[in-house]
Amino acid sequence: MLRPATPADLDDLAAFLRAADLTVAALAEPAVCLWLERDDTGAVAATTGFELGADGEHALVRSVAVRPDLRGAGDGLRLARFALDRAADAGAHEAWLFSRRSGGFWQKLGFGPTTTQALAAALPDAHQVALFRSTGQLDREVAWRRRLPVPEPLPGPGPGPGQKTEPAPGPVRASFTA
Q: SUPFAM superfamilies attached here (predicted)?
């Protein structure tokens, strides 16, 4: 069952992502929202997440991975859709990601190729962007982008005459301390 990652999950999560050859930069940062699934033995079986940009309009999808022995059942698509839905719920209008190996997978979800420069301009504060800039890896990456649907307002009565509406509370994010 997919659940939000907690500080107690951080070491297992980082080991799982390293084994999947994914970036582990800034997993403990408040802007990084992560979820995971564990199998019956307690081992990490899958992960997904995103990093919301400082402007709140752009999200960097990251950490979408399924353990190799569990692939082929559609879990990757389910996890990616979950991250996209949560990013939209958090207010993002556009999703971005880096992927050198899985372009076909992301195209199934409506992503199209873009430039790493466009991604870096949209998410200049993203930890993965900063890491890739500092290591010179940014120009060797492949970037992808897609629009996110604007969440539909919940049905129900609106405010009465002269009443104000209160903004909905923002998403709860796990915050890890190392």
A: Acyl-CoA N-acyltransferases (Nat)
> What would the CATH number be for the domain defined by 3-147?
3.40.630.30
Going by C-alpha positions, the residue among 5, 113, 126, 4 that lies closest to residue 57 is 126
Residue with tokens 């084994």: 19
Residue type, 38: R
Q: Could you give the CA distance from residue 150 to residue 89 in angstroms, rounded to a whole number?
A: 8
**H-assigned helices in the chain:** 10-19, 75-89, 103-108, 116-122, 127-135
pTM, 2 dp:
0.82
Give phi and psi for 177, each to the nearest 5.
-120, 130
Tens of pLDDT, residues 39-52: 999 999 999 999 99
How far apart, in whole angstroms, are the C-alpha atoms of residue 154 and residue 135? 44
What's the order of all strands across the beta sheet hosting 112-114? 3-4, 32-38, 44-52, 58-66, 94-98, 143-147, 112-114
Provide DSSP, 16-39.
HHHHTT---TTTTSTTEEEEEEE-
Interatomic CA distance for residues 28 and 43, integer angstroms: 20
Q: What is the pLDDT of residues 62-120, one digit of tens each?
A: 999 999 999 989 899 999 999 999 999 999 999 999 998 898 999 999 999 999 999 99
Domain ranges of the chain: 3-147
